[in-house]
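BUG: 3D viewer hangs when loading the predicted structure for this chain

Environment: internal workstation, default settings.
Expected: structure renders.
Actual: progress bar stalls at 90%.

Input used:
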Amino acid sequence: MRALLQRVLSACVEVDGVRVSRIDQGILVFLGVARGDDAACADWLVDKLCGLRIFPGTGVDGNVLKPMNESVVAVQAEVLVVSQFTLVAEVNKGRRPGFSSVADPVLAKSLYEYFCKGIEQRLGKVARGEFGADMQVQLVNDGPVTFVLDSPAIPS
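Structure tokens produced before the viewer hung:
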């Protein structure tokens, strides 16, 4: 599994001109599921995402102490997860992306939902895109702060 995380001030997803989800301050996650991924990969990513210290920490006086000192859980920020199979496409050869490493859609949807439920258990809620849909994603990147997380099953 591969996750592209963006710290955002806000983000939303539309499908056919209808807003299906929206968050304020938090993390927008684009999630790609590859062949061979399983629940252990999703668990690893959930744990990493929820513990990653990418939000500013403040002192008792309200001043920022360190620019990246708190996790999404610590600051009670929101998370929006959008499925994006192109994250695990092969692009190193030729000019057209290859998709042989992308998981079967049934497995990918199952692991996408499993991943979302894992975050939900830690944060109480998670916003979602619509799996398999043609989505329009709008975001206001905060920083910008962007990270790519690969579960151990993804070769580097």
